[in-house]
Amino acid sequence: MATIRDVAKLAGVSVATVSRVLNQNGYVNKETEKRVKQAIEQLNYKPNEVARTLFKKTSRTIGLIVPDISNPFFPELVRAVEDVMNIYDYTVILCNSDEKGEKEKEYIDILKQRYVDGIILTTNQLTIGEVSKIDVPVVVLDRPLDHSLPSVIANNYEGARMATRHLYDIGCRRIAHIQGPLHVVNAVERFNGYRDEMKELGLWDEQLVFLGDYNLKLAKEVTLHALQTLSIDGIFAGNDVMAVGALKAAQQLDLDVPNDVAIIGYDNIPLSEMTTPELSTVSQPIYQMGAMAARLLVKKIEGQSIEQSQHKLPVQLIQRKSTMRE
Amino acid sequence: MATIRDVAKLAGVSVATVSRVLNQNGYVNKETEKRVKQAIEQLNYKPNEVARTLFKKTSRTIGLIVPDISNPFFPELVRAVEDVMNIYDYTVILCNSDEKGEKEKEYIDILKQRYVDGIILTTNQLTIGEVSKIDVPVVVLDRPLDHSLPSVIANNYEGARMATRHLYDIGCRRIAHIQGPLHVVNAVERFNGYRDEMKELGLWDEQLVFLGDYNLKLAKEVTLHALQTLSIDGIFAGNDVMAVGALKAAQQLDLDVPNDVAIIGYDNIPLSEMTTPELSTVSQPIYQMGAMAARLLVKKIEGQSIEQSQHKLPVQLIQRKSTMRE
């Protein structure tokens, strides 16, 4: 493999000159730069990335901390981050934190030891004080933390109002909500949207709210209980995974979806089109969110000015068979 | 932040001695080692990982190349690799190759420039010659390449025979197969298992084989076509995603699953339990496969002896409602 010395020799310049060209610092005249670049190309010289890292304290690597890649919301998000980072020549270290603050802190330490150039966080176990101390560029994705940090989120509150209103519009009057984990901000925002819409419709009843924890099995259990003990004609589940649980509960009780009970989820993950009946849902632009966070992070790393650092993306109601009444 | 000099000063030794303790090479007496370790702990000293990388040509990072993390088979596999690597204090760089040989080669170059300690490949676009040249420890996961490389795969051929035989056992006689991509080894192995079982049963008919390319929509289309033009009473889909496509086609034609047409998939991804009826399938131990590949790679990196380097894990038939006839 060619070394920096080979390049210098072929170009007829010093090693220091080649280094200046590579790192784009210090003066090098145009003609010399051209000769060095030709030599690099001719020899297929690849600079030692680790040495460059040490010199520049950069690794062309970023860290991406997600709660759990096997939660079906995250693969598409991770894919988008990796696609965009690949375009800008960064690699992505993936970390699963399981929503545990300790594990997040540990990963952040490890990532800093690897000199990552930036971190994308899809978490909210850390306080804003802890995140501010991270000391490399950070972008927050999916879960807002604080206005001082660049972030990309979708409009959870509005989406939840739309879903609730949609159930009302097709005739539902006893609309239950299956809620995500109470410590996850987007779950709370969706609950708030549901509650405010129900209040505005004059239908608010706190007995209609059940904790499903973004978990299919738990959502199925609480729905079975709810359908057997209360008269319910509509269910707004805080995510699609829980909506599948609700659907399974209704089917186990031989109820017709949507005519006995209509169901709508949230996220529009591929799963929502795979059930029978297919699930109505609120579509988050998942890929777009990941791609936008990645581009924001590149801009921050490269010191470019960021015109707008808080992005709240619109969501969209998708009506499918689970809310199409005859 | 504490430096190596601070540690040396506190322990009353030279920087070179601290370095020998850190890198565990050269002689250091027990008492001195103890003092150095106490100083490291007391100062909460974190060795500069990048400098260590340069010195030792190691980064405590591995590369994991998958076709596409948003394919529902891979999140659990990736999660398993990351969990095990985290235990051994390695981080994981995730790469999506889209089954493109060029992209795989490009990623391997990038990973080598980052001095990864090893690579896990879940791909077969590269030839064994190309993989042998990689020059860092490699473990092949899910897709066998060659007996000279450590690998973890599941027994695709046997699994396919079991699935086909199961459809026969519940009374199916015209059993179609929806096949995965022809260039993917596990898809070919599953086809071979189906074909050999059908031959043994005296039911082989090449007209009953359709290309679904591991794609839900294509699988749905070919199933619609097959159900409308041929008399078919059973379908073995080469993976669960295609089985969902087949199920949707049957439901669109108002056929009863399993009584008009029984359907079985392959993989046992979470999705297979989310449909109605739930899908029978052949269960691959996905998490176990990822974890085993990760442990094999750690052993290779650390130069430990590997007793067995070829692992073919058993699979299991899971019967659910899509093949439970009345």
Please name the CATH architecture of the largest domain in chain A.
Answer: 3-Layer(aba) Sandwich
Low-confidence stretches of chain A: none
Class from secondary-structure proportions of chain A: alpha/beta
In the residues of chain A, how many domains can be counted?
A: 3
Write the layout of secondary structure elements.
2 copies of one chain form a homodimer.
Chain A: H1 4-11, H2 15-23, H3 30-43, H4 49-56, E1 61-66, H5 74-87, E2 91-96, H6 101-113, E3 118-121, H7 128-132, E4 138-141, E5 151-154, H8 156-169, E6 175-179, H9 185-200, E7 209-211, H10 216-229, E8 234-237, H11 240-252, E9 262-264, E10 281-283, H12 286-301, E11 310-313, E12 316-318
Parallel strand pairs in A: 1-2, 1-3, 3-4, 4-5, 5-11, 6-7, 6-8, 8-9
Antiparallel strand pairs in A: 10-12
Helix pairs in contact in A: 1-2, 1-3, 5-12, 8-9, 10-11
Structural features, described:
- Chain A has 326 residues and is of the alpha/beta class.
- Chain A is 44% helix and 15% strand.
- In chain A, the strands form 3 sheets. A 6-stranded parallel sheet of chain A has the order 2-1-3-4-5-11, sandwiched between helices. A 4-stranded parallel sheet of chain A has the order 7-6-8-9, with helices on both faces. Chain A has a two-stranded antiparallel ribbon with strand order 10-12.
- At the A-B interface, α4, α5, β2, α6 and α11 of A face α4, α5, β2, α6 and α11 of B.
